Amino acid sequence: MDLLEFARGPALQTAAYILVAGTIWRIVGIVMLKEKADYSEPRGRGGFFAALKVIWTRAFTAEPFKKATMYPKMMAYVMHIGLFATIFLFTPHIVFFEGWMGFDWPGLPNSVIFFIGVATVISGVALLVRRMTSPVLKMISNFDDYFSWFVTMLPLITGLLIPVRVLFQYEDLLAIHILSVALLLIWLPFGKLGHAFLVFITRGTTGMVFERRGART
Amino acid sequence: MTTVDGRHRLDREAERIAYKPPEARHDKQGDMSTDERVEHAMHHFVKNFNTQTASYLDGCVHCGMCADACHYHVRTDDPRYTPIWKIELFKRAYKREVGPFAFFYRLFGFKKKITIDQLEEWQHLLYDSCTVCGRCSLVCPMGIDIAGMVSMARHGMFKAGLIPHELHETAKRAAETGSPLGITPEKFEERLEWMADEHEVDIPLNIEKADVLAVMSSIEIQKYPESMAATAKILNAAGESWTFRSDGFEATNFGMLSGNTDWQKEASMKLINTAIKIGAKKLVLPECGHAYMAMRWMGANMYGKPLPFKVQHISEYIADALNEGRLKVKKVDKSVTFHDPCQVSRRGGATQAPRDILKHLGVDFREMPNGGDYNWCCGGGGGVVTIKRADELRHRVFKLKMDQVEATEAEELLSSCANCRQSFDDSQQHFGWDYTMGSLMEMVADNIEEQRS
Description:
The complex is a heterodimer. By secondary structure, chain A is mostly helical. Chain A starts with a helix and ends with a helix. The radius of gyration of chain A is 20 Å and the shape is globular. Helix content of chain A is 76%, strand content 0%. Chain A has a single domain, classed as Up-down Bundle (Fumarate Reductase Cytochrome B subunit), CATH 1.20.950.20. Chain A contains 9 helices and no strands. Chain B has 3 domains: 34-163, Orthogonal Bundle (Fumarate Reductase Iron-sulfur Protein, Chain B, domain 2); 178-323, 3-Layer(aba) Sandwich (Rossmann fold), CATH 3.40.50; 327-446. Chain B has a 4-stranded parallel sheet with strand order 2-1-3-4. A 4-stranded parallel sheet of chain B has the order 6-5-7-8, sandwiched between helices. In chain B, 58% of the residues are buried. Chain B is mainly alpha-helical. Chains A and B meet through helix 1, helix 3, helix 6 and helix 9 of A and helix 2, helix 8 and helix 17 of B.
């Protein structure tokens, strides 16, 4: 078994199992904790739709905070949209997903994906620089923040290097790229990258609690 | 009430107002050993971890945006005042003791044990520099309610005997005498009588059965007694069957502010039992922000089941009475701006009521820039106004409030929280500011239109 076969096969498969198991473990660990009943008379409607509302609305910044948070917000938008596009709208990835799920969807031209990938890396670097220079972020950051940045950037950078073919052959570059994805999948449920699924719980909870009060969400 | 004197411009950047961090002073209550304090803090931190808090503590992505929403950070640029940092120990306790991966955190020492030095340091962050105003909760892209967790972290601090002395003493006095300012039932009755004479208004007291139980805050009874007369005028004019009761009159809840849940429950139950005893259909809370949070949103949870009566802030009561035509007011030819108490508006959801009232009063209402639910806090909430050593910092953050108010150029500044009012009065005196905070309820009471029977 060569490196590429290992990466495509057991490495990716094991990473996927760890991703699923870790995610379930973390969500169950949170949900299983006791929750106190709220007996106060509701003013507004809480529940599922309130959760959905805030999951959507909190993606946008309220007017009073726009000026102060404009720069990191823009960078974060570029990074998240860029990650989505490079993962799900890149044709070779779609072919991979099709082999796994049995259906496909239209992708973007490779040149566009390449451009988006570069923009995503730039936004990631900008956010890292901010983390390392802002007194607030320096103070609140820990190993998880930097390691999560690293494992997120690695697949992007290795992916961008494949068409450039520097240092390694195509197969080796592809194998390294897939291994970096495996690393990302393994780490995702354990650190801050868990916000990929936790965001639905945190925003949803706030939606349910504060919409019930009729308060600002 | 308010006059704006443009001749005296304020020089706020002058040396006397410049900020320097307060000297470190770590208060301790009780004679526990250091280890016991840490153990108590951890135990009671852990007691607060439920699905809601766990998701919040697990979900933070360390983006730091909450710093931009916090008046303490905005005015000092001190990174320690980043809201999520204020609950760092609480977060650490969760990850180390309870979180889904707590075993690994302990095994590999990723999260160190909390020390007494850290708890002492965090006393300043959890009490002196957080009014639990919840502005940070609105900016968080993950939707984390940081303010709610500051309140919960305070439970552990209280049990460890690590809270500011002034707040502890105030809360203790409230628990022992029923009032944070030591107002006894006799004193309450005396002051009611005084106000009834002074304002020639009937103030029902200790009626056995009534539809509405009205309660006051000690701050009003002591410092703004006209509030009692204003409440009476309004409830009388609305034709309400109502009463004050000397066995349940205190609405403030310093148990909640200090972090003592037992005292919080005791204070809430006193009002709940009184309301039940007189068969009240409604409990009308005074102009007090945290009293609203304590009873409207936490009262039933202290009771352990839904309350058999409705709970309203006086501004909600007045707005309903005006909208339903039970109360009528004369037009007031003035420009007015309104300071939203955080616990009533942003966190309580009663933001519309004062706006309805001001509409009925026909004033030229001028909303503050980024007002309403995004209002800057007065700086005195969450018990901060009682903490003497926090005065300098509190005055420092008040500048944001002054700017907000002045931008409206309104003639009158009103609010519906006696604690905010107290905080405004203190800062006004400190700065020699032109604006005097007034009471929305008193403006209504002063302008009631007598209805012909």
